[in-house]
């Protein structure tokens, strides 16, 4: 058996903590997880407490019993925790891509204009969007309907429904979460020269 380095010791401790955290998060007792993983309760307790050596076959079994994978159980990729946004000053936006799902984006946008009066300037494209108003009051035009969204209220809608968003009574800030199709739809719209106020890119 190879001597334990500081790095391997840190991974060992991390995996043990992760096993316990996953068990607790899923509401499993030691006995229930032991049954699921075909281990004795005392063996599982010693694994969690660092009193028993971690064996690869046991980790595979425990990962399966905890509805995860071995890779996720031993993952140490924490270097890229902090990310900076892409800033679009012309549209008053900041955008972040989610590393876990690059198809999803988070956008923060400051709105200063009301939604367009002309229905022809509303957008429709594949995808789905979710947004929350951080400050002020937003107006969401969705098809023939008009929704007033106050600070801390959220809206979620399919983007195949013609839509536009603007502000009421002064500037407002929104934070939006939307899928790849929705982002592409807004990127195409932003490139067409239109000055319609829309949901975030």
TrEMBL record:
Pfam families: Cupin_2, HTH_3. It comes from the Bacteria. Residues 19-73 form the HTH cro/C1-type domain. Keywords: DNA-binding. PANTHER family: HTH-TYPE TRANSCRIPTIONAL REGULATOR, METHYLPHOSPHONATE SYNTHASE. This is XRE family transcriptional regulator. It comes from Streptomyces albipurpureus. The lineage of its organism: Bacteria, Bacillati, Actinomycetota, Actinomycetes, Kitasatosporales.
